[in-house]
Amino acid sequence: MSIETRTKKAGKTYAFTEDHEKGKLAQFWFQHPPEGLTLFLVLYTQACRWSKCLGCNLPSKMSEHHVPFSDIMMQIDYLFNNVLDEPEQKNLKKIILSNNGSVLDEATFSTTALMYFIAKMNMHCPALKVLSIETRVEYIDLAELEVLSRALQEKNPPTQLEIAVGFEAFDETIRNEHFNKGLTIEEFEAMAAMLASYRYHLKVYFMMKPVPQMTEEAAIHDIEKAIQYLDKISEKHGIPINMHLNPTYVASGTPLAAAFEKGDYSPPLLQNVIRAVLAGQNKRISIYVGLNDEGLAVPGGSFLRPGDETMVQQLEKFNQTQDYRLLT
Ligand code: SF4
Description:
Radius of gyration: 19 Å
Strand order of the largest sheet: 1-2-3-4-5-6-7-8
CATH architecture: Alpha-Beta Barrel
Number of domains: 1
Shape: globular
Strand content: 5-15%
CATH superfamily: Aldolase class I
Distance between the termini: 49 Å
CATH class: Alpha Beta
Bound molecules: iron/sulfur cluster
Number of helices: 11
Order of helices and strands: HEEHHEHEHEHHEHEHHEH
């Protein structure tokens, strides 16, 4: 089934981005987590082949059609020649590599381009401690992890690999029947065991209140349970886990936007996001709260409301320090 057909079947009405200027990046921005200067990099490729997740319009920034490895390599050259100046290249501590889908899906993100990216990164970013690669769980395979492991070990000092996967909602029914994530606990745990054998780190994306069926209290409870669960997985496999918690915004062209327009959905309140995060105290995992809607929310559909400025500052500081006293 084509990406377009899957998108339509999922009730989404957005168009893909076909007029992208060749060789330019899809998006990038800097973050300031505890690890130090971080680049969030989105390369322009073919869109996510899953495309079914209820509130997601990330694929709309990508092409419906295949983007050849030479075009992706041009973007990588552009990044190192035109975007990052020399001090930034030297100071970067972490890169999060994304294509708004799955970097490890070789059908949409060429392996040649991925290896080219790692070669450039090894040469230009000597202080880089962590490379985070976003992907769906089913595209992670042992052969790929082995090659990535070897390439990252060749830099001196080596770069740590973090695999970043979407889990979105802890509740199985919400996750798979309402949100259409297509991820079982068994698949997630098999992946965690695989990463543990390489001592890779794991980042897990959750969304707070991702579907109309959830109340604010249910949304808080879901994140609290997710934190407890990730804490246990971290202990069981001995791997560092970061929960990346995104308060849900109403993404245009999705069934969530249709529910919002009918008055059946509102994004979570930031004070409740803070209540949920507090469950992370004295746990093994770290938590990063995403405060960027990437310009993809419909008008009025953001989780940021007038008067939230102080809470945003508290959360930004918390992201950098993991100091829970800032949130109480
Ligand atoms: S959340 Fe990820 S896997 Fe789901 S449709 Fe969006 S990009 Fe694809």
